[in-house]
Amino acid sequence: MPEPDDLRFEWIDVSTHGEDDQWIRGRCRHLTPIPVRAFPTDELVAHLCPDCDQQLLVD
Ligand SMILES: [Zn+2]
Questions:
Q1: How far is the CA of 44 from the centre of ligand 1 (A)?
Q2: What are the domain boundaries of the chain?
Q3: Band of the pLDDT at 21, cuts 50, 70, 90?
Q4: 55 Cα to the center of ligand 1, angstroms
Q5: What's the CA gap between 47 and 35, in Å, rounded?
Q6: Which residues surround ligand 1, an ion (CB under 5 A)?
Q7: Is the pTM of this model over 0.85?
Q8: Which of the four, 4, 16, 30, 38, has the lowest number of CB atoms within 10 Å?
């Protein structure tokens, strides 16, 4: 099996020698973060990654 083409995540090859390739999902790449804005200031306070539900802090 080739590396999965789901680019949202890193993929780790866990196959052992002599077996078909096996992949497990690694770290999320947070490709499509959703901005989280404060109300009513509209200040950007964080991003939320819908792929892993992780809140990403703004620098
Ligand atoms: Zn993520």
A1: 18
A2: 9-57
A3: confident
A4: 8
A5: 4
A6: 28, 30, 49, 51-52
A7: no
A8: 16
Give CA 44 to chain center in angstroms.
20
Tens-place pLDDT, residues 33-56: 999 999 999 999 999 999 999 999
Residue 19 CA to ligand 1 center (angstroms) comes to 30
Q: In this structure, what token pair is assigned to residue 59?
A: 């620098």
Taking the C-alpha atoms of residue 59 and residue 53, their distance in angstroms, rounded to an integer, is 19
Q: What is the pLDDT of residue 8?
A: 97
CA 58 to chain centre: 16
Burial of 21 (0-12, 13-18, 19+ CB in 10 A): exposed
